[in-house]
Each structure stands twice: as C-alpha cells, then as structure tokens.
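ok new one. same drill as before - structure tokens go in, u give me an amino acid for every spot. 249 of them this time. try not to just spam alanines like last time pls lmao
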C-alpha cells in the first residue's frame, strides 16, 4: 500500500475495522494500541520506502505509533499522572480517541489544516502563550516544514520548564547528516530523494543536534536495551528506530 492522504486513511479505517478480524484472523502479530492480534499486518509506504507487514488493519497504526504507545505505557506515567497538560500537533487518528477520553489529561490538538484537530495554525508562529504544556507530541512533521529549527523553538517556548516531548521524524540511519536540497521541487523527485512526495528533507543521525539547537535536551531510548526481541517482532516495531525523548530544561 502506498502512502495515502490522512482523510482517505480515516475512511479506510472504518472499512478495515469491519473486515480485518475475519480476513486477518491469527495471533502472529499484535497491535498494542487496539489490543488486537492478526495473522499479519498490511504493507505500507512509497516505492522507495515500502515495508511489508507494518500497518495494523484495524486502527492503522504503523511501527512508530506502536513504539510510542508502548514507551508511554511502560516507561512513563502518561496514562496515570494527574493534571497533565498536553499539546498534540498533527494528531494521529489511532491515538485520538484514547487520549481524548483520558481523565488525567488536559488534551488539545492542533494542525495547519487537519479537520480532526481542535486548533489550526502555522507551526512557525504558534499563537499560544509561553510555558503552558507538560507534554508535546509532534511526529513526522519536521520533514515537511520550511524552517524546522523555528518550529522546534516555538514548541520549546510553549512547553513548561521540565516538560517533555516526542517529535519523531523519518530518519535515514545510514546518513550522518540531514539531506536537504531546495532545488528538488517535483513530487516524483522528492519521493526519490526524501522518501515521500511532500517531504522537503531527509533527517540523518544528526537529528538530535537540530533539537538541541532549538534549546532542548535530548535523550535516546533504544527499545533493544530493555524490550525482548520477541516483543519487537510481535509488535512489528522497526528494530533500529531510536525514540528521542526531548526535555525543556
């Protein structure tokens, strides 16, 4: 399956929820978000970033969603700590119903255009006051924006001191430095160079340095240090993906 627009994915999710339990009956893989097991997941991604057995047919989680969910569940008090004020940029449909019903969260979503978001604004100039949020989520956004450092700095500004964030990006672990080329403008060439038609850069292993330039302190969580290889396979996680846990000093 190629990368699809989010509104289409949302519509497809209702179809998948009806047929998935029958078509993919089995116990080989499990989605920790919907807590359902299947014989396999669906394939997903563009031609240059295609992956097999990664898209949950029920709630459309991918590897990054399942990694984040498990991290929040196992390594944080996100689901239990009272009074957490959370800002979720470009909210993922698979998380939205879960986070919205959590009584311990003061939870708000934002996006430039998404119809499922509570607020709409440009991330380069966030119309919110300083030092408001305990937690910020902003995944797979920085590869789209004109100025990632400015967007990161704006998110830093609205976070409380001591607050933390998860801001994952597509990352080429074979690259030491992030790849940008402003002359690449056609969708076909962007897909070839940056893995998707609407990406304008491909982050390398220097991604933490970008976050540090915006004033964050960055820690790396490697699932392989604490989780069993059988779990990584069962949940179909990307075994070499590093989860960056970002804190505002």
């Amino acid at each position: 399956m190629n990368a699809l627009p989010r509104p289409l994915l949302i519509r497809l999710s209702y179809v998948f929820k009806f047929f998935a339990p029958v078509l993919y009956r089995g116990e080989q893989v499990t989605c920790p978000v919907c807590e359902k097991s299947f014989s396999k997941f669906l394939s997903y991604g563009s031609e240059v970033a295609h992956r097999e057995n990664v898209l949950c047919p029920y709630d459309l989680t991918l590897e990054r969603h399942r990694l984040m969910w498990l991290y929040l569940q196992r390594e944080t008090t996100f689901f239990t700590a009272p009074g957490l004020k959370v800002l979720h940029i470009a909210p993922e449909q698979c998380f939205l119903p879960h986070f919205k019903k959590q009584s311990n969260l003061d939870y708000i979503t934002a996006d430039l255009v998404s119809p499922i978001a509570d607020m709409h604004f440009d991330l380069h100039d966030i119309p919110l006051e300083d030092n408001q949020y305990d937690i910020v989520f902003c995944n797979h956004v920085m590869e789209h924006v004109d100025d990632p450092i400015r967007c990161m700095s704006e998110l830093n500004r609205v976070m409380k001191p001591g607050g933390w964030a998860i801001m994952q990006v597509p990352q080429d672990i074979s690259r030491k430095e992030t790849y940008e080329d402003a002359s690449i403008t056609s969708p076909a060439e962007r897909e070839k160079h940056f893995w998707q038609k609407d990406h304008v850069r491909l982050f390398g292993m220097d991604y933490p340095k970008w976050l540090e330039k915006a004033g964050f302190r960055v820690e790396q969580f490697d699932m392989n240090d604490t989780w069993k290889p059988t779990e990584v396979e069962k949940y179909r996680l990307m075994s070499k993906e590093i989860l960056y846990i970002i804190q505002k000093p």
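Residues 63-247 form a domain with the Rossmann fold fold (CATH 3.40.50.150). and btw The longest helix spans residues 6-23.
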